[in-house]
Amino acid sequence: MDHLALAPELVAECIEHLHESLPDLVSCALVTRAWVYPAQVHLFRALTILGKAFSRPPFGMKFLRLPHLRTLMKDSPHLIPHIRRLTIWLSNEDLATLAEMANFPFTHLEYLHSRHIGSLLRPPVLALQQFISLDTLRTLKLDTGRILDPTVLVEIWSLFPSPLLKRLEFDIPATFEPSPSSDSAF
Questions:
Q1: Closest C-alpha among 81, 15, 87 to residue 51
Q2: How far is the C-alpha of 13 from the C-alpha of 88, rounded, in Å?
Q3: How many whole angstroms from its chain centre is CA 154?
Q4: For residue 166, pLDDT beyond 80
Q5: How distant, in Å, are the alpha carbons of 14, 47, 82, 109, 165 from that of 31?
Q6: What 3-state class would DSSP assign to 170?
């Protein structure tokens, strides 16, 4: 039996109105093959990734675990171009996985927000360096509980040679207290 096919523009417009509803987007992706791509564009546009140190998502956010994202990217590399915004909540335990993930071909990543537990030290920054060197990245936000020294900010900026990076944000506690000298930064 012949079925009535909607024009791709109509499908895209309908799915655009559902962009905030994860269950509806998943349902749309299951309706017919013609709806898979437009639904995936919205499903994977903005991802929040939680590392091992986070037992449950903060504030009820939708998230993926870091190892799950790695597996998903290996099994379905066609989804990588859909990722425009990536928020990563990590600890030092996650650095190896993060460094491996940074080697995936993020061709359209525009915004990266890294929230790291503890001090902003060399290992987490170097793990992010591959991401930061992407030509498409426009905004980088580094969020940390503490930072050792204001001069570290200058050194971090020098590690990121991307001329296309337009905005670099640091979320540092309101009261600056240098970390103990036992911590080693850059």
A1: 87
A2: 30
A3: 23
A4: yes
A5: 13, 23, 20, 28, 39
A6: strand
* 86 token code pair: 């990536």
User: What are the structure tokens assigned to 125, written together?
Assistant: 């920054």
User: Six-digit token pair at 110?
Assistant: 């525009």
How many helices and strands (H and E) does the chain possess?
A: 7, 6
Q: Are residues 53 and 10 in the same domain?
A: no
The residue type found at 127 is A
Nearest Cα neighbor of 109 from 70, 75, 81, 72 is: 81
- 14 has pLDDT over 80: yes
The number of distinct structural domains making up the chain is 2
User: Within a 10 A sphere around the Cβ of 90, how many other Cβ atoms?
Assistant: 23
The reply to whether 5 and 28 lie within a common domain is: yes
128-137: b or e for each residue (b if 16 or more CB lie within 10 Å)?
bebbbebeeb
Same domain, 26 and 102: no
CB within 8 Å of 69: residues ≥ 6 apart = 47, 49, 101
Please answer whether residues 35 and 28 qualify as being in contact, where contact means their C-beta atoms are separated by less than 8 angstroms.
yes
Q: Judge if 7 and 32 occupy the same domain.
A: yes
Sign of the CA dihedral with 56 first, then 18, 82, and 80 last: positive
CATH code of the domain in which 154 resides: 3.80.10.10
How far is the C-alpha of 86 from the C-alpha of 134, rounded, in Å?
Answer: 13
Express each pLDDT in 140-151 by its tens digit: 887 776 655 566
